[in-house]
Structures are given as C-alpha cells and as structure tokens.
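can u pls check wat happens w/ FVH
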Amino acid sequence: TQNTVEKTPVTLLGLGAMGTALARAWLAAGHPLTVWNRTPARAAALATEGARVADTPAAAVAANGLVVVCLLDDASVAEVLSGTDLADRDLVDLTTGTPAEARARARWVRERGARYLDGGIMAVPPMIGVPQAGGYVFYSGSHELFERHRETLAVPAGTTYVGEDAGFAALHDVALLSAMYGMFAGAAHAFALIRKEDIDPAALAPLLADWLVAMAPAVHQTADRLRSGDYTKNVVSHLAMQVAGTPTFLRTAEQQGVSPELLSPYFELMRRRLAEGGGAEDLTGVIDLLVH
Ligand code: FVH
C-alpha cells in the first residue's frame, strides 16, 4: 500500500515561511525529514509533527543524500553550507537568486563533490502542498538529478524542468515575476485614475482582471514575431497609431491628478521605436530597444 512504500529521506535547510511550508508537505507525504534553521525555535513545531531537528547544518547535510536549501538569499546559502561536507550529496537550491548566482553556486557545489539542481519557486507558501493551487517550481541544472528526485520534488508543488544551464530556473523565475510587476504597475495606474472619483475600486477590479486575461494571449504573437523576425505581418494596432494615442493617456493622467511615472518609460520606448522607423510594427520592436 501507499504507506509501506519507502519515501526518499530529505534534509531541508531553512525554515522561513517557504521552508516551513515545504517541510510540512514532505512530512504529510511520509518523507523522513531532517531540518535545520539558524533560529532553532522555528523548528519546534515541525519536531512535534515528525521532523528530526539537526543541531548544525553539517549534521543536517550528513543525515541524507538529498539536501534542499531554501534560505533568504545566495549569501545565506554560502554561509550555511560553508562548514558542511557536501561530498556525494544531491543539492537542490530553492533560494531565489540571479542566474549568475545559480551558475556560480552550481560550480561551487560541484567542486565540493556534489550534484546541483537550482529551483525557482512560482508559488507563495499557502500554495505549497496544494496541487489545485497551481504553484510550481522551475528546475535547471543536472537533468539526471532532476529525474532521480522528480517524485520527491513534485510533493510540495508541480515541477517544470527548463534545462541543463543551472541559471535557467532563476532566469525563468525572474522573467515571469518581472512580467507580473509590469502588470501590477499597470493596475496601480488604473486604480490611481479612479481614486478620486465616485467609482468603487471593487467595481473596477473585475473589469481590470477580465481585460488583463483577454490581453494576455498577445504574448504568443510576440513570441512568434521574435522567432520570425517579422514585426509587421498582420499587425492590427500599428505602433504609429498607438504612439499617436499616448498623449490622451498622459492628459487623462494629468486631469485626474495622477503621476505618469509608471507609464512614461514605456511610452518613451514606443516613441523611440517609431522614430527609428518602426511605425508599421506592433509593440514587439520595443523589446529590441531594451537589449544592450
Ligand atoms: N515567501 C514567499 O512568498 C516567496 C515565494 C517565492 C520564493 N520565495 C523565496 O524563497 C526563499 C525563502 O523565502 P521565505 O519566505 O522562507 O523567507 P523568510 O521567511 O524570510 O525566511 C528566510 C530564511 O532564511 C534564513 N536565513 C536568512 N539569513 C540567514 C543567514 N545569514 N544564515 C542562515 N539562515 C539565514 C532564515 O533563518 P532565521 O531568520 O529563521 O534564523 C529563514 O529560515 C527566498 O529566497 C525567497 O525569495 C519566497
């Protein structure tokens, strides 16, 4: 039966909000779990739920072949792992960092005789261990390691492997989160426009959400254009027309007493692309202006 199947033992370093959620998911699925946290009090509740608490990172790493780290940043990972013996360990780093940090950490870990997989978590703690919440983790680095631990890694959240380059998980993570911040910025401007009017923000919210969902598939067209290099084929809303419309947005902001500082940088890029002759394109050409 399910209960008699041996589950891979896991060591987890870091019991912040995310680490604690990961720990609970593995415990609930029956994985033997050894944990360590700088502030020991954070491990107390998990101990009563079945986790073994190690006194030091070195003891935690020595306990199991699969070692997962989920700490604040790459500097804390370096600090915590520095006194441990990583020889022959499978290290999975779920700490958020840059692609360059992940690549450097992969080299650092391999030099110490361990295998490395980097992870970028696309979820918040309440989504962990809740498959229907849709959270998942990007993984990159050793594919062999990913395959070996695929089942265990899939316990807290879905898994999406994005390549042998250890930096790719972080890159995908930051790319998606950057798009999210762009969306939040647009929504913030929209709410600011109605802030002083007799319009209920709760009435605007569903309109905003539906509009953003309706516009989101445009990213597929952008990808097609980037692949083909043709930014003008079947364009519905030309850049020239869109740039001509930007003063309306800026005047509306001014009339509503709203700063244009979130919109202006994007409009400026649109104007530059138009000036360079991109009037018949859609907005794809703006991407090329961003890349140095
Ligand atoms: N929470 C979230 O919404 C996001 C969702 C997406 C992924 N992120 C990333 O996950 C990493 C961990 O985040 P977290 O939510 O667990 O963060 P905290 O609750 O702040 O816990 C931080 C843990 O790191 C330990 N720590 C910090 N500095 C050190 C250090 N120098 N040496 C040893 N440990 C350190 C801290 O220990 P303590 O304060 O309890 O002693 C916590 O265990 C992170 O990369 C997010 O970007 C989360």
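Residues 226 and 284 are 7 Å apart (CA to CA).
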